[in-house]
């Protein structure tokens, strides 16, 4: 078995549990469905589908675009994400209608989409949650279409955070309706969401399944909001330059031509341009990583970087970080007892380990540079993480053992020159001994 593959831990399953699992697989009453408003995979699919449609339509005539978007029979009532008409139908205003028309005439106009989203965000009326979901999709669409600018990244982060806030406020209103019957003389608006959850859970009455789902979703959403606390500020501070996916495509194309014809070393200006594009992309990816709706396009960009600089560890390190960010959200959902996330945990961690291992293979172990040190340090951390979380990650003992052995190699390089890693070295060594005794 290759080092880069792990096996799920197998244990004996009692007949009763096996029956429950089989019933869930067959779609019985115990089938666990993901929480609807936090089903980011479904939202990602919608954005990807809209982006693909835009790319197909971009060369069509104006009349054909109108026919296939605004006038489509299956979208006449609710509009589409392709031209932003889904927003225009929900908000009737001249400003919104004008912007939807602009997008219809130029489906790839990120400036018009950003302006549409900002115009709606400035409208302080209370709209249904679906509108904020659609706004997030419109904002994300600009990134999927290749425009990664300070404006598009900032609006993507802002709409993501706004969507999370609206999930909480929408659920709060629903729970307050229930509590208002018992708390007649209390100003319910001043009750915090956290206090409201405690009141719901402390009530002697039985909470129905719908209320349980609502409370669960609020708890997860509150935590996700914490993860975005500095997102807007970090985006403003770090994203100062524009990158378009066409720049990466051109760079990878030139790279292939150079490799094919063995062209002599590039000029200094070409090298500098290459480095600038890669640097801009890496900075953008650090922001994209924090917005779940953007993860698929982020991984696509990373794959392009790996194609351009396949011998460098950094593109693989960034990929590993993306998978670890996804894992962080999955484990959060499980901790909050949202068990539909469980099947994705092990495959996601495996992807992270594979990417970390590829980065490690490309790092210098003798006289490591700054990037190499980061790779070695993160791999050491993730190896111990695998040991500590092996049960929730559902990892086989021999898989954990292999990861720890690679982690030991990494920390052994770091410890002699930096005492900070000595404790980590001892922890990994102790974990190795315990795993060998188990195995």
Describe this structure in words.
With 439 residues, the protein is mainly alpha-helical. It has two domains: 36-231, no CATH class; 245-438, Alpha Horseshoe (Serine Threonine Protein Phosphatase 5, Tetratricopeptide repeat), CATH 1.25.40. The protein is built from 19 helices and two strands. The protein has helices spanning 15-25, 40-57, 62-68, 85-90, 94-105, 110-121, 129-144, 150-179, 193-202, 209-227, 231-238, 245-261, 268-288, 295-308, 314-335, 342-362, 370-388, 397-414, 422-438, and strands at 147-148, 243-244. A two-stranded antiparallel ribbon has the order 1-2. Helix 6 (110-121) runs antiparallel to helix 7 (129-144) and helix 18 (397-414) runs antiparallel to helix 19. The longest helix has 30 residues, at 150-179. It is flat, with a radius of gyration of 25 Å. It starts with 14 loop residues before the first helix and ends with a helix. 34% of the residues are buried. Residues 1-32, 70-76 and 259-265 have low confidence and may be disordered.
Protein topology:
Layout: H1 15-25, H2 40-57, H3 62-68, H4 85-90, H5 94-105, H6 110-121, H7 129-144, E1 147-148, H8 150-179, H9 193-202, H10 209-227, H11 231-238, E2 243-244, H12 245-261, H13 268-288, H14 295-308, H15 314-335, H16 342-362, H17 370-388, H18 397-414, H19 422-438
Antiparallel strand pairs: 1-2
Listing every helix as H and every strand as E from the N terminus to the C terminus, the arrangement reads HHHHHHHEHHHHEHHHHHHHH
Q: Kindly state the number of beta strands.
A: 2
Extract low-pLDDT stretches: 1-32, 70-76, 259-265
Radius of gyration based on Cα positions: 25 Å
For the largest beta sheet, what order do the strands appear in spatially? Answer: 1-2
Helix proportion: 55-70%
Indicate how many domains the architecture comprises.
2
Structural class: mainly alpha
Please give the count of helices.
Answer: 19
Proportion of beta-strand residues:
under 5%
Major sheet attributes: 2 strands, antiparallel
Shape: flat
Average pLDDT over all residues: 84
Straight-line N-to-C gap: 17 Å
